[in-house]
Amino acid sequence: MKKLLNTLFITQPDVYLSLDGDNIVLLKEQEKLGRLPLHNLESVVAFGYTGASPALMGYCAERNIAIVFLTMSGRFAARVIGASKGNVVLRKKQYLVSEDEAQSARIARNFIVGKLFNGKWMIERMTRDYPLRVDVPQFKEASRHLSSIIKEVRECEDLDRIRGLEGQAALAYNKLFNQMILQQKEDFYFHTRSRRPPLDNVNAMLSLAYTLLAHDATSALEGVGLDAYVGFLHRDRPGRASLALDAMEELRGVYADRFVLSLINKKIVQAEDFVRKENGAVIMTDEARKKFLTAWQNRKQEKITHPYLGEKISWGLVPHVQALLLARYLRGDLDEYPPFFWK
Prior knowledge:
Its EC number is 3.1.-.-. Homodimer, forms a heterotetramer with a Cas2 homodimer. It is an enzyme of class 3 (hydrolase). Keywords: Antiviral defense, DNA-binding, Endonuclease, Hydrolase, Magnesium, Manganese, Metal-binding, Nuclease. It is built from nine helices and 13 strands. The protein is an alpha/beta fold. The strands form four sheets. A five-stranded mixed sheet has the order 1-2-6-8-9, sandwiched between helices. A four-stranded mixed sheet has the order 5-4-3-7. It has a two-stranded antiparallel ribbon with strand order 10-11. α3 packs parallel to α7 (242-265), α4 packs antiparallel against α5 (159-180) and α6 (201-223) crosses α7 (242-265). The longest helix has 29 residues, at 101-129. The protein has helices at 54-62, 85-99, 101-129, 136-155, 159-180, 201-223, 242-265, 286-301, 318-331, and strands spanning 2-4, 7-10, 15-20, 23-28, 31-37, 43-47, 49-52, 66-70, 76-80, 274-276, 282-284, 303-305, 312-314.
């Protein structure tokens, strides 16, 4: 278990949650795994839970401590709360901010600053680690270009302008993506982003990675009581989890893109893992998709030091921590939403 921002994350599978006095107790097959006071917790997030005692749920409901249940893969299952006053206040603030384009832009620009910073870091790391495999002057020029865009985005309070600047940065980044593929270049190449349908092996993998990341972001936002369908950069559209799309922007490159590149460059996926349909769409075989999902779950268990909190957490908890930070900003506990800057 891990306590972050007054939230207890329980990541071990098959754990039963119970109450002992004013403490939450974690049990697995009658063995006590841990015990923690509840008095200073705001929420409990359990992955792959076995269950929770009625006494614990009643205690938490009375004290406005939310209990969030997720599957082991991170899919949102349920959020148990008592009187919903806290949740209502948070969502009302979210809706008010979303209706105000200037306030929305102040949050949206930080999502994009995080995305561009992380993309710049990926570019710089390629020149450091593979100077003989990539066009270093081209990469350095793109890095400088991203730096100038980041400066402009930081000061921008117009949503359309932020979107335009993000588009410019995406073009510069995408021009280099093919060079980041270091192995199996005959079968894995990137010329442009194709979505519906993906038209090559790399786009098929990117689409699946972005879908998984969007699900993780949605679960994280719902877990803290935010409405995943009301965004700030991505505006409302029926059936679209707009805030989840906002929140995943800063993790697209540094998490999803790097994950896809690692599968290719380590030859974990190969050409025979893909099938081209009659309409030109490229899809992964069932066996390859299982391999992809297993690797995704394993990557989520890898430890990093969160750049804002300065604490070691798993990659899988990053969307949840960022969702907590966004909720704190909307409540007025933080002066600004802190983007995820990974290095």
